[in-house]
Design a protein that fits this description.
The protein is of the alpha/beta class and 327 residues long. The protein is 38% helix and 23% strand. The structure holds S-adenosylmethionine (SAM). S-adenosylmethionine (SAM) binds next to helix 3, helix 5 and helix 6.
Length: 327
């Protein structure tokens, strides 16, 4: 059975214990985020890496898993390269979503993050995680080939020209590329740069976009991002000094594949006709959806009670889901 957040939590428990001593390091990490410092700059320390794993790994795992799920079953990689993989959250997410996966290779500049990630993954009930390869390498480096390359919360660590170079290098060496960044205006700007780079390399987008055209929000009028809710364990709450038993992680992402032109209607497998890009609004006898569609771009879709099955689907639909629900 695929690994889930409980398995990740159990593996974190085994390595971090209650994590009670990590609160100051977690606070320092948050302060670094808030001051605009790249968290990677501070992950080069064993205690910071442990704090990162305790407070960020569950969230980055949930975000990457949601992105890979959105790409659908058309994504069938055997090998994974996780670039800037840190403590390996994206490998956990891939193991949770991609049954075809047989091996994973994590590259990162931080030896403490890699060593910790290896110990956490060793406790996973999954052979891909337990057998993953962890290599210290600081971009720019030659990348090994893989069916899927993931860059999770990594592009934003780099300067814009380095972001373009690493995404282009990933696209040269992989058949599919998934990029996930924080769901903030700055994270979305980095994401758009990755999206443009992938399109420039001839890749086609599977998710979230229903097209390969210019993003309607590239003008800066808004930013495309999605929420995922995740449970917080007792350790997570303690290290973060938080009371709520859950948190919402906001993320921006793109999953693109090298081929796909031969698919029905010219759409790569898994690409929806449209995607819901805000919380649906439930009104009396109707649901109002904000949908990104190939044309005309962002549109308001009113689904009234008279629409029958579509109305029920709209009531059940959430931010990030495909729309219409049936292709
Ligand atoms: C915010 S963490 C993300 C880690 C992981 N991908 C995740 O989603 O949890 C950023 C990672 O990028 C790594 N990093 C930063 N600059 C790098 C570089 N030039 N080459 C390789 N790794 C780098 C850091 O060591 C850190 O592990």
């Amino acid at each position: 059975m695929a690994v889930g957040e409980r398995d990740l939590d159990a593996a974190l428990d085994a390595v971090l214990g209650s994590g009670s001593e990590l609160a100051p390091a977690a606070a320092a990490l948050s302060a670094a985020y808030r001051s605009g410092r790249r968290p990677g700059e501070v992950l080069d320390d064993p205690t910071a890496a442990r704090a990162y794993a305790a407070v960020r790994m569950p969230a980055t795992f949930a975000a990457v898993r949601a992105a890979l799920r959105a790409a659908g079953p058309g994504l069938r990689p055997t090998t994974l390269l996780d670039i800037g993989g840190g403590t390996g959250a994206a490998v956990w997410a891939a193991a949770a979503t991609l049954p075809s996966l047989r091996s994973a290779h994590v590259l990162d500049g931080s030896a403490p993050a890699l060593a910790l990630g290896r110990r956490i993954a060793a406790g996973a009930p999954d052979p891909v995680l337990a057998g993953a390869t962890w290599t210290q390498a600081r971009w720019p480096v030659d990348l090994p080939g893989a069916d899927l390359a993931t860059l999770a919360y990594f592009a934003g660590e780099l300067r814009p020209e380095q972001q373009v170079a690493v995404v282009a290098a990933a696209a040269e060496r992989a058949g599919a590329v998934a990029v996930v960044e924080p769901g903030t205006p700055a994270g979305f700007a980095d994401l758009l740069r990755a999206r443009d780079t992938l399109l420039g390399m001839g890749f086609r987008i599977v998710a979230p976009c229903p097209h390969d055209l210019d993003c309607p929000w590239a003008t800066g009028s808004d930013w495309c991002h999605f929420p995922v809710r995740l449970p917080r364990s007792a350790r997570h709450r303690q290290v973060k000094g938080a009371r709520l038993g859950w948190e919402d992680e906001k993320f921006s992402y793109v999953v693109a594949v090298r081929d796909g032109a031969d698919r029905p209607e010219g759409r790569p497998e898994g690409r929806p006709e449209g995607r819901i890009v805000r919380h649906p609004l439930q009104r009396k006898g109707m649901v109002e959806l904000t949908v990104c569609a190939a044309r005309p771009g962002i549109e308001r879709v009113i689904v009234s009670k008279r629409s029958g099955a579509d109305y029920k689907a709209a009531r059940d639909a959430g931010w990030g889901d495909a729309w219409p629900p049936h292709p």
